[in-house]
Structures are given as C-alpha cells and as structure tokens.
C-alpha cells in the first residue's frame, strides 16, 4: 500500500507509539517460526517377514491404503529399502519404534530406520 500523503514522514504509522520520533519499526524479514527438520522413515527388506505383515504394518502406522501399502512393500522387497513417510524428528522416531515393537511382538525380523531428509 502507498504511504498516506497527508501525514508527515515522522507521523506515519511505521513508528506508531512513538509520535513524531521518526524512528520507524523494524520490519520482520524472516518467519517467526523456523521450519522443523524432516526425517524419512525407511523400511528395510529381509527374507523372513511375511509380505502381508509388512502391508498391515504400513496400513496401521502410516495410514496407507492397501494399494499404497502393497506398492511400498513390493518396492522394499525388490529394492531393499523404501520410504514409508517423512515426519518431524519425534514423530519419525515414534513410528520407527512402533514398527520395531510390532514386528518383535509377532517374532518377525522386520526393521525400520530414519534418516534426515
Ligand atoms: N522379503 C520378504 C518376503 O519375501 C517381504 C518383505 C517385504 C519383508 C518388505 C520386509 O520390508 C519388507 N517374505
């Protein structure tokens, strides 16, 4: 917006609260909240965990549809590793632990890890 031409330089609103001081207010150039670092959660292949257990795990902890979960599982099966999702540090860490605990409870060696995005 253009400055109001009826006001003198020192009386415009950019130094509101300091009438006539002509000091002005510092303009924020950076967002107040920094963007948090993001982490990929990775699923690792192994020779023993049943495919349907991996699909169930992806649906349960990563809210994937059966179609997406099957796609990710097959990618991991064929390539060795695949991305389950990208999260802030604490969310990623929680998901890794949930997957590892769930696999251990069912005596499957399925492993999951995280890395900075
Ligand atoms: N390779 C496993 C099998 O043939 C299936 C599998 C897929 C295991 C993905 C782990 O992250 C995984 N039964």
Task: Tell me the strand order in the biggest sheet.
Answer: 2-1-3
Number of helices: 3
Q: What is the global morphology? A: elongated
Number of strands: 3
Bound molecules: L-tyrosinamide
Distance linking N and C termini: 39 Å
Main sheet makeup:
3 strands, antiparallel
The percent range for strand residues is: 15-25%
Helix content: 25-40%
For this structure, the quaternary state is single chain
Secondary-structure element order, as H and E? EHHEHE
Gyration radius, to the nearest Å? 26 Å
Average the pLDDT over all residues and give the rounded result.
85
Query: What structural category characterises the helix and strand content?
Result: alpha+beta
Return residue spans where pLDDT drops below 50 for at least 5 consecutive residues: 1-21
Description:
The structure is a single chain. With 117 residues, this protein is an alpha+beta fold. It has helices at 51-62, 66-79, 89-105; strands at 38-44, 81-88, 111-116. The chain has a three-stranded antiparallel sheet with strand order 2-1-3. Helix 1 packs across helix 2 (66-79) and helix 1 (51-62) runs antiparallel to helix 3 (89-105). The longest helix is centred in the C-terminal third of the chain and has 17 residues, at 89-105. It is elongated. The model is unreliable at 1-21 (pLDDT under 50). The site of L-tyrosinamide (TYC) has 13 residues, from strand 1, helix 1 and helix 2.
